[in-house]
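Technical annex, item 7. During the second reporting period the consortium partners agreed on a shared format for inverse folding records so that results from different sites could be compared directly. Each record opens with the tokenized structure and is followed by the designed sequence. A conforming record, contributed by the partner at site C, is shown below for reference.
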């Protein structure tokens, strides 16, 4: 709650040395700080020469003022924008302007001598304002630190996602596949370790707050990358609960946390729970649903769960039918059930497998898996169309 502290003191006509005419000017600058301890972003600073206010300078939004004056000794007077002309808020005596020099003269109304001039009621109001301001400043500092950490986390996650390419670049063209895999693993581990450390610090710093669900989602992401699946499940669930209870739930946080929870379940063999979590991610953030469901199929491919892989691929195809990788993933999930015809010794593909591979080639005839898919189809005696147009690679 913002309060206005109204202070008024009568101007004192003080005897000061007369200003000498026709002399080079001096300069003065400074900052006005209000009794709460923050910049006073309005009003005027004037220089009183004993008979009149000889110079008046405006105070900007940062509490700063500056100007020129003839050499001499003045009383500096501060007035707020609403202070009557016959009143003042504060004054500082014996301010000396020297020709050719730029002096600094601040007016800090949080000083003890000034506070003692206030009434008991004003001092009580001031104490309340200081307390409120201190909490606000602390909160602003925490928010600033969190935003900086989240920016660093985003970069670290990008580093983890691009670990293989980075490893290849660092090791050079002569590196073996095993060396590249090992180096990529080291890069990922370090990146996720950094993310975990930052997010553990920030979640501890914001204990008790209910508006920091993104921190718990990012912490879960780091733990997921480090294969700390139980911990990641717990923190993703905390992020979901916290965000759901907020006044304005975030689709992005919900999607991130639900899909992360889905991966944690998938990696630990909890297929039904994983499917439910990925469905929840797609529902919470429809714009990213194709990515969530594709990732689900990829994860089951990595885990060797062909049944779940096919189911996930079908679900992803339903909302993203022009993504070739989904048909490849479906075909790969089905091809494990292929048999061999004892008479022809040809591969007999299970229902839906050839169709999935053909669709992949239709969408990505020059894709990274095109040769592999063509080989499988040819071994199965399937005709591979040569009329496919070049599609996007994936």
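Designed sequence (site C submission):
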């Amino acid at each position: 709650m913002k309060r206005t502290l109204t202070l008024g003191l009568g101007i004192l006509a003080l005897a000061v040395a007369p200003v000498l005419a026709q002399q080079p000017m001096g300069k003065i600058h400074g900052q006005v700080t209000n009794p709460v301890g923050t910049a006073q972003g309005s009003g005027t600073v004037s220089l009183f020469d004993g008979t009149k206010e000889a110079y008046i300078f405006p105070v900007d939004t940062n509490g700063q003022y500056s100007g020129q004056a003839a050499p001499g000794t003045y009383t500096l007077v501060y007035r707020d924008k609403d202070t009557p002309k016959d009143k003042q808020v504060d004054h500082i005596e014996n301010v000396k302007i020297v020709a050719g020099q730029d002096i600094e003269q601040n007016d800090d109304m949080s000083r003890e001598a000034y506070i003692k001039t206030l009434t008991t009621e004003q001092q009580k109001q001031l104490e309340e304002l200081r307390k409120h301001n201190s909490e606000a400043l602390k909160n602003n500092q925490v928010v600033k630190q969190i935003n900086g950490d989240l920016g660093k986390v985003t970069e670290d996650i990008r580093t983890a996602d691009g670990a293989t390419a980075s490893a290849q670049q660092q090791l050079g063209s002569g590196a073996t596949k095993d060396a590249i895999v090992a180096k990529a693993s080291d890069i990922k581990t370090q990146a996720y370790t950094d993310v975990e450390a930052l997010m553990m610090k920030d979640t501890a710093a914001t204990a008790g707050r209910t508006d920091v669900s993104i921190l718990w989602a990012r912490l879960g992401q780091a733990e997921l990358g480090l294969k700390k699946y139980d911990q990641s499940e717990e923190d993703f669930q905390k992020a979901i609960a916290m965000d759901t209870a907020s006044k304005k739930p975030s689709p992005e946080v919900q999607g991130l946390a639900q899909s992360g929870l889905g991966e944690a379940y998938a990696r630990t063999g909890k297929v039904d729970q994983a499917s439910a979590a990925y469905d929840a991610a797609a529902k919470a953030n429809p714009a990213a649903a194709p990515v969530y469901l594709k990732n689900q199929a990829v994860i089951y491919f990595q885990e060797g769960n062909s049944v779940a892989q096919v189911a996930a691929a079908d679900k992803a195809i339903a909302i993203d039918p022009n993504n070739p990788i989904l048909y490849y993933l479906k075909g790969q999930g089905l091809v494990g059930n292929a048999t061999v015809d004892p008479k022809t010794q040809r591969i007999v593909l299970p229902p839906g497998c050839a169709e999935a591979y053909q669709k992949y080639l239709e969408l990505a005839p020059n894709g990274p898996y095109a040769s592999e898919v063509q080989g499988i189809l040819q071994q199965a005696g399937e005709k591979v169309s040569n009329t496919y147009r070049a599609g996007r690679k994936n």
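Confidence is low (pLDDT under 50) at residues 1-21, 389-394. The chain has 13 helices and twelve strands. All partners now use this format for quarterly exchanges.
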